[in-house]
Amino acid sequence: MSKYSLPEDRLQTTDEKGNRVYIHPHDVKGPWKNLRTKVYWFLILLYLVLPWIYIGGKQVILLDLPAREFYIFGKTFYGHDGPFLIFLLLGFLFFFAFVTSVWGRVWCGFACPQTVFIDTIYRFIERKIEGVGPKRDKLERAPWNLEKIVKRFSKWLLYTIVSMHIVHSGIGYFVGTHKLLYITMQSPTTNLYLFVLMLTITAIILFDFGWFREQFCIIACPYGRFQSLVMDENSLIISYDKKRGEPRKRTKGIDPNDLGDCVNCNRCVNVCPTGIDIREGLQMECIACTMCIDACDDIMKKVKKPTGLIRYTTETQIDGKKKKYSPRVYLYGALFIATIFTLMFSLSKRQELKVQVIREGKSPYQYLVTEKKVINRFSLRMRYMNPKKETLSLHLLADNVELIAPEFPLEIENENINSNIFLKFPKSILKNGKKVIQMVIKEDRKDRLIKDVTLLGPIE
Ligand code: SF4
Ligand code: SF4
Q: Which of 21, 172, 318, 459 is the most buried (most CB within 10 A)?
């Protein structure tokens, strides 16, 4: 096997026995790298800052699993809001199917946390401590000595600090950042469960971002498999232009004048974080990170050839055909829009105030002989799902019924409240010992909540 080709029977990241071969991609510069760096830092800052943003005293995203309460941009959802969650998940599914069928593995290259954190932070640490790709390769093969021990120890120490920070920010989305800050000031034994959880996730992240890396994309990522199902010949891919590049330099028996543009420098292979040779065609391992585009464009400029030997394109364009999206793509787009529309519509119709009127007391009514009036006692069980304070007033749509509600008007704010009320009325308004009246619990121009209440009393 020449040093200009990769083994055909196995991945470059495994040896003949199937053991892991750790690859150290070389650094690359170029417009795609610049764009990705900007996107990556934006996403990292968003992830770190978002849980610290509070609107109206509430964390902008808080997923309180034990309480089954989820605050998302000022809206509160509860465990029983499952249908909204289903629409949301379906929306994500159709969105990703649409994006992947048009733009290919853009998620892997530009937004996957695995790519974002490894490329921006973990490789930066590695580069600062162990040097650029070829130096790291050399260190990998070098015997264990003091220098290697110090470098490896420093690298893993920094990895651990960074991983802990990432995990703490993640936990902040579930516990609340203010509460988490308080918890971190206490002894770990005070919140042992959370502490063990934090250590476990840190260990998983260290393993994945620090060591496992491209192996996760190649053998474990379910989204990678999903994408290969959704993509077709019209999806955007990163591809080597075989017609233009071949026969590449150093191909035996070819007249130098008949050579293609590929100078067989192997730069595209050396920068690839999954260790593949894009010149062998579209491969499952390609995460569309664009490293090879920048690397090859740089070489093309040096040898004074047009750039774009490796570029974003589609299989149909490579074959010289016109790009035409299949009906599947339009279907994904339509399903995404329909799902989001349904979700928005359901949310706009969602009642933020839920009230149950429960009859209370040992007997269904009390008869006041002196006043010749009947009293019914009820409990109002109210659940209000909005962090904005609301004042509830109570009144009846019935004559001759007196409402005794000492706690009303009542201020309520994203909570559950029980309140006792009494209804007093002359027994003459009843027919066969009962009468149904209406009670207005919340009234404003947009939203009016009315409940039927059955009055009970003695049968004449
Ligand atoms: S082949 Fe190119 S785009 Fe694909 S993973 Fe390797 S460097 Fe990234
Ligand atoms: S970087 Fe470009 S020129 Fe160099 S081997 Fe890859 S495809 Fe050929």
A: 172
Kindly report whether the global pTM for this prediction surpasses the value 0.85.
no
Check whether residue 343 and residue 362 sit in a common domain. no
Residue pLDDT, tens place only, 18-77:
788 888 999 999 999 999 999 999 999 999 999 999 987 789 999 988 888 888 887 778
Do residues 396 and 414 make contact, with C-beta atoms less than 8 angstroms apart?
no
Same domain, yes or no, for 165 and 116?
yes
338 and 393 in a single domain? The answer is: no
Residue 224 and residue 359 in one domain: no
Does the beta carbon of 163 sit less than 6 angstroms from any atom of ligand 1? no
Number of domains in the chain: 2
262 Cβ inside 6 Å of ligand 2: yes
Is the CB of 267 within 6 Å of ligand 2?
A: yes
Q: Using one digit for the tens of pLDDT, what is the confidence trace for 330-348?
A: 999 999 999 999 988 888 8
Residue of 264, 301, 313 best suited for mutating to test ligand 2, as the one with most atoms within 8 Å of CB = 264
